[in-house]
Amino acid sequence: MTTVQGPPSIADRLGELEQLKELARLGADPAATERQHAKGKLTAYERIDLLLDPGSFTEVEPLRRHRATGFGLEAKRPHTDGVVTGWGTVEGRTVFVYAHDFRIFGGALGEAHAQKIQKIMDMAMAAGCPLVSLNDGAGARIQEGVSALAGYGGIFRRNTRASGVIPQISVMLGPCAGGAAYSPALTDFVFAVRGISQMFITGPDVVRTVTGEEVSHDGLGGADVHGSVSGVAHFVHDDEESCLAEVRELLAMLPSNNRELPPAEPGGDDAYRRVDRLLDLVPLDGNRSYDMREVIAEIVDDQDFLEVHARWGPNLVCALVRLDGQVTGVVASQPAALAGVLDIDASEKGARFVQFCDAFNIPLLTLVDVPGFLPGVGQEHEGIIRRGAKLLYAYCNATVPRVSLVLRKAYGGAYIVMDSRSIGTDLALAWPTNEIAVMGAEAAADVVFRREITASKDPGATREQKIKEYRRELVHPYYAAERGLVDDVIDPGSTRAVLVRAFAMLQRKDADLPRRKHGNPPQ
User: What residues does the CoA carboxyltransferase C-terminal domain cover (predicted)?
Assistant: First the structure.
């Protein structure tokens, strides 16, 4: 007797579906997972689990497969096609994510792979939510030719359209070579992990062939290179766990999109507490160094802040902080590095940070102790005029609430650039230790009184007298306040309370730029 096989039941179909999804998560080749772990790397799904709140991830197109043929591709069509896409939450707020799966085609991008990424980018834009990319891929899928390259073009276009609309964060957790490196470069923040992150346009083999230079993968494009030399990476970590934890911390301080304010988080720190330790932290002598990060810690909530680009352009500190629970961007001179002068790297670092804060409604606090721009043939030839102007342009273009505070020195063009009253800061404050002038009294005396000093019977004594005279007339703490260029000279111990009140007053600031398609910032 023959048994007739009936159609599959719904239970059969559900079992099949569960099996397919589990296979996609585990990977078709267990050895590939072992190789990933052997390199000290997590899988795409493990990374997403660390990034998002537990149980919140919803995957999109987990069963997608490529349709390419040739070079044996038709025989290898794994689900997900090497990229995991979807959304979940971070601290309860929706975040979209895509993660390359290096176990499948080395995470290389093909047509279907690119379409999945493009879809999730479109969804993030439509929902008005941040997008995080977890990058671990070998570039374009060579077997798919120009279709793969076109896929990158679609991603770059979406990165650009999303710029200033939703926060975009790139996390480098493996190789990223060739054109693939440009997507992270178009995003707002780049995270890198030592030992596994590598970014470069042309690899060591090509460099050796073309230029004869010998360099390792890490030496060419490792995490530390991009964190301290090129400035491509904003944050550098020793392992994936701490890296993804800081991505969560950053997301918690950012608005979901440019139509929202950053999330407030009232804490237990007294908004109006005095900060008298600042009197000891900042030496009265303008030639003595100190660490501006200690000043920032004293002022902000719970002495906690998130520094951006900590190891690149270290003579300028950029950080996200909270003042009375409100997210604020801080741009500060750093006397502990190059005496706090502005140079090319610091200017570009500051400009990028100011533009980001302005795009996402984050108020700006500028702490000033700057002796000027860094002099030198190298700086001039490498474009300090053009590149230094980026910071000036960014401030002049910013419409968010802006407060500047001069702690000690503020000389020359650098004083103007660091959000002075003349370029539009809403409130200009200073400590009674401030020296706002074209240049320091010593240098000014040498220029203004050069002939008198030279003709004097005692040049040294005459020079000292002229220095005192110049300082008495032009460099005293109240000169700028008398002319309305400083709104108030404040007690350093009251700094936190004054700043909290100032930003509370400015919270509803309404400022518009002239109608235009866009500006043309210095490049």
Answer: 274-517
Nearest CA-CA partner of 188 in 357, 338, 388, 36:
357
Supply the residues annotated as catalytic: 178-179, 413-414
The answer for residues whose C-beta is within 8 angstroms of residue 412's C-beta and 6 or more apart is: 372, 373, 438, 439
Helix ranges (DSSP H) in 165-304: 182-185, 204-211, 217-221, 223-228, 240-251, 278-281, 292-299
| Averaged pLDDT score across all residues of the chain | 91
Helix spans in 334-383 (H)? 344-359, 377-381
Cα 23 from Cα 17, distance rounded (Å): 10
Query: Tokens 């000033």 sit at which residue?
Result: 368
Measured in whole angstroms, the distance separating CA 74 from the mean position of its chain's CA atoms is 42
What is the Cα–Cα distance from 432 to 430, expressed in whole angstroms? Answer: 7
Cβ atoms 362, 327 nearer than 8 A:
yes
Q: Are 84 and 47 in contact (CB under 8 A)?
A: no
CA dist list (Å): 464 to 213, 408, 450: 54, 21, 12
What would the two tokens of residue 162 be?
A: 């999303």
> What count of residues does the chain have?
523
Mean pLDDT to the nearest integer, 66-82: 72
d(CA 54, CA 359): 30
Task: Give the count of beta carbons closer than 10 Å to the beta carbon of residue 468.
Answer: 12
> In sequence order, what are the residues at sequence separation of 6 or more whose Cβ sits closer than 8 angstroms to the Cβ of residue 490?
429, 430, 431, 498
Name the pLDDT band for 194 (thresholds 50, 70, 90). Answer: very high
**Structure-token match 């500060």, residue found:** 332
Q: Two tokens at 199?
A: 């970014």
Whether 473 shows a pLDDT value over 80: the answer reads: no
Give the amino acid at 329: G
**Cα angle for residues 178, 180, 183 (degrees, 5° grid):** 135
Residue found under tokens 């995003």: 187
Say if residues 405 and 368 touch (Cβ distance below 8 Å).
Answer: yes
What is the C-alpha to C-alpha distance for residues 303 and 321, in angstroms, rounded to an integer? Answer: 9
